[in-house]
Design brief:
By secondary structure, the protein is α/β, with parallel strands linked by helices. It is 39% helix and 20% strand. The protein has one domain: Rossmann fold, CATH 3.40.50.880. The strands form two sheets. The chain has a nine-stranded mixed sheet with strand order 2-1-3-4-11-10-9-6-7, with helices on both faces. Strands 5-8 form a two-stranded antiparallel sheet. α2 crosses α3.
Length: 269
C-alpha cells in the first residue's frame, strides 16, 4: 500500500496548492489526503505530514503582538525620498485593496488552522512521523519547536527588491552534507518566492540549512530525525525541477521506512 500523506490547508481556498501537493505526492509514490479544520485528522492515521502554505502564523504563538507598519519602517524600505512619499500616499489604497481582494483568514490569520496544525505537528514529532513544512508550514514547524519569526521582511530588501514569483528565480544555498542537500542532491538551487515572513530564531532542535543571499533562512531541518524538514519556498509548484521532485520522493521514502519500522515493532510486541 502507498504511504498515506496528510496535507494541511484552510477550509476556504488553497485548492491550487492542494492539487499540486497531491500530484507531487502521487508522483513520488504516495497517497495524499486533505486535512482542514473542517476535516481534521490525527497523526496516528498518517504515514507522513505536509503542512502547507497560507495565512500568517499567529504571532501570539511565539509571544509577540501583530506588527503594524510604522513611518520609520516605510522610510527604511524606500530607497529614496520620492519613493517613500509615493508609498506613503498609496498606502491607504493598497491596504483597502488587500482587504477587498483577500479572504478574512489571509488578512487576519486562521486561528482554527493554527490550532489544528500545531496539534498535528506536536503529534507527528512525538511519534517520529516524517514532516515537510512548506512556507507557512516551515514557519509553524519552527514556532512549534520553540523558534520565532520575522513578521515583515521589508528591512532585508531595502537594497535589493524581494522577488515575488511562482517561477524558480531566487538562488538558495544549502549547507553541504545536510539532509536536505542530500535529498535534493545539490547545495545550490533556484526556488520560487511567495512569502513576506520568514524564520528569525530557529527552534532548539532545528538547524538552518538553506539561505538566500540576503541572509534570510530558506530551509530548516532536525538533523537528528530522518525527515523533519521545512522549506520557505513552494516545491509543489515546481514539478518541472528534478530536485523538487526529489524532495517529495525523500518524504515518501522516509514514510515507507516509518511504516516498515512500526510494522516490525507491532510484530515483535
Amino acid at each position: 500500500m502507498k504511504p498515506v500523506v496528510g496535507v494541511t490547508g484552510p477550509d476556504r481556498g488553497g485548492t491550487a496548492a492542494w492539487l499540486c501537493c497531491r500530484f507531487a505526492v502521487w508522483l513520488a509514490g504516495g497517497r495524499a489526503v486533505r486535512i482542514t479544520p473542517g476535516r481534521p485528522m490525527t497523526a496516528d492515521a498518517l504515514d507522513a505530514l505536509i503542512v502547507g502554505g497560507g495565512a500568517d502564523v499567529d504571532p501570539g504563538l511565539y509571544g509577540e503582538e501583530p506588527a503594524t507598519p510604522s513611518m520609520r519602517a516605510l522610510r527604511r524600505s524606500s530607497r529614496n525620498l520620492p519613493r517613500f512619499l509615493a508609498t506613503l500616499a498609496l498606502f491607504p489604497l493598497l491596504w483597502l485593496l488587500r482587504r477587498l481582494l483577500s479572504t478574512k483568514a489571509a488578512v487576519g490569520g486562521d486561528t482554527d488552522r493554527d490550532l489544528l496544525e500545531t496539534r498535528l505537528l506536536e503529534e507527528a514529532l512525538d511519534c517520529g512521523l516524517p514532516v515537510l513544512g512548506i512556507c507557512r508550514g516551515a514557519q509553524l514547524l519552527n514556532v512549534v519547536c520553540g523558534g520565532t519569526l520575522y513578521q515583515d521582511l521589508r528591512a532585508f530588501y531595502s537594497e535589493t527588491p524581494n522577488l515575488w514569483t511562482i517561477w524558480p528565480q531566487k538562488p538558495v544555498r544549502l549547507r553541504p552534507h545536510s539532509r536536505l542537500a542530500q535529498a535534493l542532491d545539490r547545495t545550490y538551487c533556484h526556488v520560487n518566492s511567495l512569502h513576506r515572513q520568514a524564520i528569525r530564531d530557529p527552534g532548539p532542535r532545528l538547524e538552518p540549512v538553506g539561505h538566500e543571499d540576503s541572509g534570510v533562512i530558506q530551509a530548516i531541518e532536525d538533523s537528528n530525525a530522518p525527515c523533519v524538514l521545512g522549506v520557505q519556498w513552494h516545491p509543489e509548484y515546481l514539478p518541472q525541477k528534478r530536485e523538487q521532485r526529489a524532495l517529495f520522493r525523500h518524504l515518501i521514502a522516509c514514510a515507507a521506512e516509518h511504516v516498515h519500522a512500526n510494522n516490525d515493532y507491532s510484530t515483535r510486541v
